[in-house]
Amino acid sequence: MKARLLAAALAVLLAAPALAVQPDEVLGDPALEARARTISQSLRCPICQGENIDESNAAISRDLRLYVRERLVAGDSDAQVIDAVTTRFGEFVLFEPKADGANLILYWAGPVMALLAALGTWLFLRGRQRDVAAPQPLTVDEQARLDRLMRDQDN
């Protein structure tokens, strides 16, 4: 009984993302439908922002899914479909924006900041090593006083 209940719960959890695509949206050609699903998973829902349009139940996501399928049926390639959606909604809908133009700042900001932090740390530690003075030998008076203290302590 527990196994059946666990299997049912697992089936519901695994089917949850598939609930967004409605049966009337599914294309008859399995190859086109697979392409549509792949493209839909790479496009962000403009309302949900954390979900792709394939998983989102928002009305705009449904419209976008239908638009993607229309473009595929019209004979567009995957890149052409993505370009058409990007032209219509901007690069915001892409989960992985193109690495060109102003986006290069975002792509390079992390590695550049990490290198600057490493350089700053290295310079800081190198400067601390220079500040530590080498021990100076004791003067004759200091050595004599130390010897006296050591003798007095032994007694």
Feature tags:
single chain; 155 residues; mainly alpha; 63% helix
Describe the 3D structure.
- The chain is mainly alpha-helical.
- 63% of the residues lie in helices and 0% in strands.
- The chain has six helices and no strands.
- Helix 2 packs across helix 3 and helix 3 packs across helix 4 (78-89).
- The longest helix has 29 residues, at 103-131.
- The relative contact order is 0.07.
Q: What do the pLDDT scores average to?
A: 79
Beta-strand proportion: under 5%
Oligomer: single chain
* Rg on CA atoms, Å: 33 Å
Give a summary of the structure in a few sentences.
With 155 residues, this protein is mainly alpha-helical.
Any chance you could write out the topology, listing elements then pairs?
Layout: H1 2-15, H2 30-41, H3 59-73, H4 78-89, H5 103-131, H6 140-154
Helix pairs in contact: 2-3, 3-4
